[in-house]
Amino acid sequence: MGWWPFGKKRASTAYNNDPILKDTRTWLSELRDACELNFDNPEEARRQIRHMQVEWKDAMDRGDMAPHLREGLESRAFRLLTCTDKEWLVWLDDLAFWKAGWKPPQGDENEA
Question: What is the pTM for the complete model shown?
Fold first, then answer.
C-alpha cells in the first residue's frame, strides 16, 4: 500500500518560496529613475549605472535575467556612459530609448 494521507509534502511547493523576479519594465524603470534623478549631475548617474551593471551581471549569473534583457540594458548603459553631457539630456528625453524592445540604430557598430 503506497497511499498515506499524512505523508511529507512534495517538493512541488518549493516554487512558492521563489522571490518575485523583476521584469523588463522594472529594470528599465530603475535605470531611467537613476538617470532622471541625476539629470543635472551626469557623473553621479554614470556611477550608479556602473553599479547597476554589476547587479545585472549578478542577476544574469543567478538566472534571474534573460540574456536579451541584459543585452538591451547594456546597450542603453553604453550610450549613457559614453555620451557627452549635452547628449545626456537628449537620451533622457528620447521616449523610444526607454521603451522595452528598443534597438540601437543600424550601422552603430561602436558598441563594446
Answer: 0.75
